[in-house]
Design brief:
about 475 residues, mainly alpha, two-stranded antiparallel sheet, globular
Length: about 475
């Protein structure tokens, strides 16, 4: 659309979307978009769980322990690059085009991974798989927040982000079966794991075709008539599904918008650093803390068990199942409190509480008081709280910045936070494992310190965004004064 075709409009679409009662239509959005986190959990777990097998010559790769950490870091680097690249395209060309494109990239790259026979080829496949997943974060989080009613945004976002751990549990059980050399040869089972991940991704792609474009994105980018038609269709569907007649939305709930074609990088940076500097620091702190903790631990946990605690490599993946369940239950059971008690209290409590528990875990591990079973129990407790906080980090950065920069904001904080915490973490832990239990305990203390520090930042800089419209939390840049 040319600049001459853009105009100033008055719209009630945000208020109409926020007043919708929960219906089957919302479940379509949750299933079609939210299930991508299952794929990410599956990817991370598969590589972590098969780490021991990949270091065997019979696997066909014969990686070293450090190279396993390198592969994890390369996956995260790809996710960071993908988030930035596809995040910009998401804000410019729309949510739907990009959440279809990024899932397609994931499918191609993960199938290619199954045919890896050299470390370099394996690393390249991990990079592009990560790029697809990273792009998904920006496109999906922005679309979900713009389609889900304000009063349920917290609990829905946390539950969706928590679904990552369903993929983790599935991946752990799957790899235990596929790593059994009595069933599959050592060089075949881990390859099938990546192939099955692609099958799951293809299923999600088929469901996702029915998820609409964000009406909020459309009316800002000159497609206001399409947005009005789409919202009317959504309202009819919700009324049919719930049997309720929706209350009318009056003109005093309208906002006036100067339409625009795109938002440049310069304006995105200006908005973050000059209009919302405290929110910028908040988002960065939350992402660095959780990214270091999660990427460091889950990419190398099976390696800790097999190398330091002498757990057989076909048994080690089972430990990820209870940890995944604890991670999933945290956001699901605590999610409603983020909408009722509030964002600031719950996020800070989740981060600080998990950090303190992790300090205790590190001390016990360093004293050699934890075997594989009790170390796993400690991680279940730590991650029950940490998972709720980590999920809320994605919620936070997707709702506290203006509509026009939402996808790019998600991409930036994911890329920078994950780049600093998620790349350094696996690289560091891959080498700490080679040095022994004491060195790994030091890594745990570092992760705990970052989580506690992020929780304290939330105490002082947190945004009380619960049950508020996105346009109320941060005015659209296109809003007419």
């Amino acid at each position: 659309m040319s600049e001459s075709e853009l105009k100033t409009i008055s719209t009630t679409i945000p208020a109409r979307m926020d007043r919708l009662p929960w219906a089957r239509w919302h479940w379509l959005v949750v299933i079609g978009l939210g299930t991508v986190w299952i794929l990410d959990g599956l990817e991370v777990t598969i590589v972590g769980a098969i780490a021991g097998r990949l270091t065997e010559k019979s696997s066909g790769l014969g990686l070293t322990a450090s190279q396993v950490g390198d592969a994890a870091a390369i996956y995260v680097a790809g996710a960071c690059v993908g988030a930035l690249f596809f995040g910009y395209l998401t804000d410019r060309f729309g949510r739907k085009k990009l959440f279809m494109l990024t899932l397609g990239l994931y499918l191609v790259a993960t199938v290619a991974t199954a045919f890896s026979f050299t470390p370099i080829y394996f690393f390249a496949c991990r990079f592009f798989t990560g790029a697809g997943i990273g792009g998904e974060y920006a496109a999906i989080n922005s679309a979900i927040d713009e389609l889900i009613p304000a009063r349920r945004r917290g609990v829905v976002d946390l539950a969706i982000n928590g679904s990552y751990w369903l993929g983790t549990a599935f991946g752990a059980v799957l790899t235990v079966f596929l790593l059994n050399t009595a069933v599959f040869p050592a060089g075949l089972g881990w390859r099938l794991a990546f192939g099955l991940g692609a099958v799951l991704g293809l299923t999600i792609l088929l469901v996702r075709r029915n998820v609409p474009e964000s009406p909020r994105w459309m009316f800002i980018h000159g497609r206001d008539e399409q947005a009005e038609h789409e919202v009317a269709e959504i309202e009819r569907s919700v009324e049919d599904q719930t049997g309720q007649t929706l209350d009318p939305v009056h003109d005093d709930a309208a906002i006036e918008i100067h339409q625009r074609r795109s938002t440049g990088f310069g304006e995105i940076v200006r908005v973050a650093l000059t209009m919302y500097p405290k929110r910028f620091v908040l988002g960065l702190s939350l992402f660095i803390g959780q990214a270091f903790l999660y990427n460091a631990v889950f990419f190398t946990y099976a390696l800790v068990l097999t190398t330091l605690l002498k757990v057989p490599d076909d048994i080690a993946p089972w430990s990820l199942v209870p940890i995944a369940i604890g991670n999933f239950l945290g956001p699901v059971l605590l999610g409603r409190l983020f909408d009722s008690v509030g964002r600031r209290f719950m996020i800070s409590a989740s981060y600080i509480g998990s950090g303190v528990l992790l300090v205790g875990t590190g001390i016990l591990f360093d004293l050699r008081l934890l075997d594989a079973t009790w170390l796993t129990v400690c991680w279940v407790v730590v991650f029950f709280f940490a998972s709720a906080g980590a999920s809320a980090a994605y919620l936070t950065v997707s709702e506290i910045f203006p509509m026009e920069t939402r996808a790019m904001a998600i991409a930036f904080f994911y890329a920078v936070g994950t780049g600093l915490g998620g790349i350094v973490g696996p690289l560091l832990f891959g080498r700490l494992v080679e040095q022994g239990i004491g060195a790994v305990a030091v890594g745990y203390f570092i992760g705990a310190g970052l989580m506690i520090a992020a929780g304290l930042v939330e105490v002082f800089l947190g945004v009380d965004a619960e049950r508020r419209s996105l346009e109320d939390i941060a005015d659209p840049l296109s809003k007419a004064e």
